[in-house]
Design a protein that fits this description.
The complex is a heterodimer of chains A (497) and B (169). With 497 residues, chain A is of the alpha/beta class. Chain A has eleven helices and 22 strands. In chain A, the strands form four sheets. In chain A, strands 4, 6, 13, 14, 15, 16, 19, 20 and 21 form a nine-stranded mixed beta sheet that branches. In chain A, strand 19 and strand 20 form a beta hairpin. The longest helix of chain A is centred in the C-terminal third of the chain and has 20 residues. Classes of the chains: A alpha/beta (497), B mainly alpha (169). Chains A and B meet through helix 2, helix 8 and helix 9 of A and helix 5, helix 6, helix 7 and helix 8 of B.
């Protein structure tokens, strides 16, 4: 079995040849690389980030954010209103994600079939794929005994209000419950792309090369022929029989647009959904110490309904952060800010993430980085406001003494009867810190070439042998954590490559 | 011809005056800032005057337990793209020279009393101009990173920090 290589060791001007070059090594790319290599294809998988080994996971925010995240964790929409999180390391976002495992909701799959002309991806067709992916990644329900205090707050609130909620599932084995999942696991407990799929791809003969930033898809307008790579020692050329884009809904769209792919219906990069979320904090008499234990293990689905036209599009989970993240999220500065930080061990944090209908666009800035244009529509702002109120209700129902809405200016609620008067403007971008961790939908799938970039097989409508196998495919938001959907669609569609 | 020459001469004087004025303003903008020589030598991104502004910002944002954030900020900025650095530089200049004027003060931010500095910062945090809010948040984030990355800071709030120490393995 080969090992993960670094492009640092490849001389400038190197020319490599393979059957399939896979761009990106996250959920989509690692699965595609493994599936194709297992079928006997000569595969090269490229990753722009580095290979961060288990022993390099220091559990320090200041060190790990620049190593594992795009733009050192500082990527945001072009108006600077929403922080957009994405992975940049071998394993992509599966290295820093919180391992939540949910299948694509059936009503969403039906909607895609009905309205977006997606074929071959119905729930009965995908069910065995989901089952196989979940088995390979060791997906299990998170046991109640592993529920930390912050998640017990959410559970208590859900039960006190009689709302819908329940335990989440994850892909961890041997978890030490140290609570640092979002900055990499030093215990190697995540059953992710790096732990499970890339070793399997290597066993089947694939090459996995880190520190290799793909700058262009080589094509003649009709057929993909390879990629150009910016490596530390110079430009590399990779000739391939097929190109698979799996660099995330942001990264793949940037590459597609930078490569001047045919775009007769102006669809490239459009349709971006981000599943944006807002956090709400509650102050408790008891110590919560939310930084300890599995960060997210329980969900509230009271306000989540995936049926077409639903106005209940809010998924509520916990959202605790380590001190740097927490201090940035808390509004204000100076003494008032320090006072909130002093309460840090007694704070529980919930997040309302919305199944968004806003359609943004990914473009390319002059310096080659992503330009993310995404202006929340009023309906989504309304959902965020409803989500903030729902979080506040849950926190009070769980026993919070005070609730903080981290808007500017900060809003502190002393009693539940103040929740209704919470202004909708508190949920507007720039008035409150918004974070998006699940970008999707910039190179949409569907059999109608006027509305979609790729066919239901994942192959580009105009450029043969160019495939998209990541979250860019999704015609809408899926309203939840996307890793199982991305792994599964990649596995399901890679047979067409 | 004579008229043309006169016009060009007048335009030339005008342009020269503008250049001299701009030069003077630039000199005013960057003069009068004291930074220890050894610190100034180590700066890779921030100009000495920007370092002073960032330090003053940190003192108010991190009150009541401020620490110096200038060197950390300079180090952090080394990893950013040129366009981001340009935006940070513009915000620092705005904070020092224009934000106080907008808030009703006729002095630089670094020359204001702490209470006045707080009012200027409050006006930026709540500004109706979204880019100014974002600029404030970006610089605040750097101050928070500088402060909350330290184990001494963690002790204040009972945060245990990393549970693994690879160095001790």
């Amino acid at each position: 079995m080969g090992a993960i290589e670094s492009a640092r060791n490849l001389p400038a001007g190197s020319r490599l040849r393979c059957d399939v070059v896979v761009v990106g090594t996250g959920a989509g790319g690692s699965m595609a690389a493994r599936e194709l290599a297992a079928r006997g294809a000569k595969v090269i998988a490229l990753e722009e980030g580095s290979y961060v080994r288990q022993q390099q996971m220091t559990q320090r925010e200041d060190e790990m954010m620049p190593r594992l995240y795009q733009e050192r964790g500082g990527r945001s929409t072009s108006d600077l209103a929403i922080r957009v999180i994405g992975g940049r390391a071998v394993g992509g976002s599966t290295v820093h994600n919180i391992n939540l495992c949910k299948r694509t909701p059936t009503p969403i799959l039906e909607l895609w079939q009905r309205r977006h002309h997606v074929s071959g991806c119905s729930e009965p067709e995908l069910r065995p794929v989901f089952e196989s992916v979940e088995a390979e990644l060791s997906v299990t329900e998170i046991p109640e005994a592993m529920r930390n205090a912050n998640n017990r707050v959410l559970e208590r609130g859900v039960k006190a209000l009689g709302w819908k909620g329940g335990p989440l599932s994850h892909n961890r084995v041997g978890c030490q419950q140290s609570g640092f999942c979002e900055i990499g696991c030093p215990f190697d407990a995540k059953q992710n792309a790096v732990k499970v799929l890339l070793p399997s791809a290597l066993e089947h003969g694939a090459r996995v090369i880190s520190d290799a930033r793909v700058t262009r898809i080589v094509h003649d307008g009709k057929r993909a022929r390879g990629v150009k790579v910016a490596a530390p020692r110079g430009v590399l050329d990779i000739e391939a029989g097929a190109v698979v884009l799996a660099g995330s809904a942001v990264g793949s769209a940037v590459l597609a647009r930078a490569s001047a792919l045919p775009d007769p219906h102006d669809r490239l990069g459009r349709g971006l959904r981000m599943h944006p979320g807002v956090a709400v904090a509650g102050l408790f008499d008891e110590r919560i110490e939310g930084w300890k234990g599995i960060p997210q293990s329980y969900e509230c689905t009271e306000h989540l309904d995936f049926s077409d036209g639903s106005e209940r599009r809010i998924w509520i989970i916990t959202a605790f952060a380590h001190p740097i993240g927490a201090s940035i999220m808390l509004p204000g500065f100076g003494v008032a800010h320090h006072e909130w930080m002093r309460h840090y061990p007694n704070i529980a944090v919930l997040s309302a993430m919305i199944h968004d209908e806003t359609e943004g666009r990914v473009g390319v800035r002059d310096d080659g980085r992503a330009r993310i244009d995404y202006e929340l529509i009023d309906g989504d702002v309304h959902q965020l406001a409803l989500g903030m109120r729902a979080c506040a209700r849950l926190l009070f129902a769980a026993g919070a003494k005070r609730v903080l809405i981290p808007s500017v200016p900060a809003i502190t609620l002393e009693r539940p009867d103040q929740i209704e008067s919470l202004p909708e403007s508190a949920a507007r971008p720039h008035h409150v810190g918004l974070v998006a961790v699940h970008p999707m939908g910039t190179l949409r799938m569907g059999d109608d070439a006027r509305a979609a970039v790729v066919k239901s097989t994942g192959e580009h409508h105009q450029v043969e042998r160019l495939f998209v196998l990541d979250g860019s495919l999704f015609p809408t938001s899926i309203g939840g954590p996307p890793q199982i959907s991305i792994y599964s669609f990649s596995k399901h569609l890679s047979r067409h490559v | 011809m004579t008229t043309n020459v006169r016009r060009r001469r007048v335009l030339g004087y005008f342009a020269g005056g503008l250049a001299a004025g701009a030069g003077g303003l630039t000199w005013l903008r960057v003069s009068g800032y004291q930074v220890p020589a050894d610190v100034a030598e180590r700066l890779a991104v921030l100009a000495p005057w920007q370092y002073v502004v960032v330090e003053a910002f940190g003192r108010r944002v991190l009150a009541p337990r401020p620490i110096g954030i200038g060197s950390y900020t300079d180090e952090y900025l080394r990893g950013l793209a040129a366009t981001d650095l340009r935006d940070v530089g513009r915000f620092i200049a705005y904070l020092e020279h224009l934000a106080p004027v907008v808030a009703g003060y006729a002095r630089r931010f670094t020359a204001l009393a702490p209470e006045a500095q707080d009012r200027v910062l409050g006006s930026l945090e709540e500004s109706r101009i979204e880019l100014l809010r974002a600029g404030f948040q970006a610089l605040k984030a750097m101050a928070m990173m500088a402060y909350w990355r330290r184990s001494e800071s963690w002790a204040e709030i009972g945060y245990g920090g990393p549970v693994i120490d690879w160095g001790a393995e």
